[in-house]
Design a protein that fits this description.
The protein is an alpha/beta fold. The protein has two domains: 120 residues, 3-Layer(aba) Sandwich (Rossmann fold); 204 residues, 2-Layer Sandwich (Dihydrodipicolinate Reductase, domain 2), CATH 3.30.360. It contains nine helices and 15 strands. The strands form two sheets. A nine-stranded mixed sheet has the order 14-13-12-11-7-10-9-8-15. Strand 9 and strand 10 form a beta hairpin. The longest helix has 19 residues. The termini are far apart. InterPro entries: Gfo/Idh/MocA-like_OxRdtase_N, Gfo/Idh/MocA_domain, GFO_IDH_MocA-like_dom, NAD(P)-bd_dom_sf. Keywords: Oxidoreductase. This is Gfo/Idh/MocA family protein.
């Protein structure tokens, strides 16, 4: 049997329903403990996911010497504190996106983990779907010509749930941080470089603590390539990304949440349409396995921890642009 990474989960968030079973189903990990702010809530989550140990505080979980790594699905404003505390306790950290409330916080988290000698990763699970390597190869081959623009959207409607944690401004709420971070990350992931300017318009809703319920943005990249995207928590569900070149394009349906039965993408080139077949796999399980291999030095991280700092810089600029109604350039 392969060596197993023992995971602890800090928080009983809804996303655990996707992540915890995936870690349990991964080849290199198992969840051995979960903590909540009350023991009752922790025990309920432990029973639900068949986790052996429940703790009534996050601090107790961090003192458990059997735990190698922690998964942090807490609200955004708690990411910095508990990532740093986990690192100081010698635990490797997989933290939900966005990593922090701003780039400065993200850098502090990266520095703390580096100082403690632990692995830190931001939980962008979509990047672990194998189709992305093939998509990068199509782009690199020149099949769709020179890159011109990328276009994406990630929206859903949960505006009626006024008490949701996403609707607390001080907690890092809003659509850009919750789901707009995905197309921003995707563009940077595919291009392998950083934006030089950002512009955005947002619907800031007084009904939802003035968070951005909808946001449309443009990121300018070197070489006159751009990303145009929109994100929102007050619109019909959409989940797609498109890469447009001078001679063709790539459509990626179910970009961030692939279909249950496939993860196919479509290439248009030379007047022809080709479907590249990709199987449906559990990208959360692949994320957990890659994390474990990186911890043990068997593989390199898919991206360095500093990638999260750079993504936060882009998010910071977009949010500033939306609030100040101005184009923001990067140093």
């Amino acid at each position: 049997m392969s060596k197993q990474l023992n995971w602890g989960v800090i928080g009983a968030a809804g996303i655990n329903g996707a992540v915890v079973p995936a870690i349990q189903a991964s080849s290199r990990g198992r969840v051995v403990a979960i903590a909540s702010r009350t023991l009752e809530k922790a025990r309920a989550a432990a029973d639900k996911f068949a986790i052996p140990t429940a703790y009534g505080s996050y601090e107790q979980l961090l003192t458990d010497e059997s735990i190698d790594a922690v998964y942090i699905p807490l609200p955004n404003h708690l990411h910095r504190e508990w990532t740093i505390r986990a690192a100081e306790a010698g635990k490797h950290v997989l933290c939900e996106k966005p990593l922090a409330l701003n780039a400065q916080e993200a850098q502090e988290m990266v520095d703390a983990c580096a100082k403690a000698g632990v692995h830190l990763a931001e939980a962008f699970m979509y990047r672990h779907q194998p189709r992305w390597e093939r998509i990068k190869n199509v782009i690199a081959s020149g099949e769709i010509g020179e890159l011109r623009v990328m276009r994406g959207a990630f929206t859903f409607n949960m505006a009626a749930d006024k008490g949701n944690v996403r609707f607390h401004a001080d907690w890092g709420g809003g659509s850009l941080f919750d789901i707009g971070c995905y197309p921003v990350s995707t563009a940077r992931f595919l291009l392998g470089n950083e934006p030089i300017a950002a512009s955005a318009h947002a619907l800031f809703s007084p009904e939802h603590d003035d968070v951005d319920m909808m946001l449309s943005g443009i990121l300018e990249f070197p070489g006159d390539v751009s990303l145009t995207f929109d994100c929102g928590m007050w619109a019909d569900f959409r989940n797609f990304f498109e890469v447009v070149g001078s001679d063709g394009r790539i459509e990626i349906p179910g970009t961030f949440i692939p279909n249950d039965d496939d993860a196919d993408f479509v290439v248009y080139s030379g007047g022809q349409r080709r479907v590249d077949k990709e199987p449906a796999v559990n990208q959360y399980s692949l994320q957990a396995d890659r994390f474990a291999r990186a911890v043990w030095g068997e593989d390199v991280p898919l991206v360095p921890a500093t990638d999260a700092v750079r993504n936060m810089r882009a998010l910071d600029a977009l949010l500033r642009s939306a609030r100040e109604k101005t184009r923001v350039t990067f140093d």
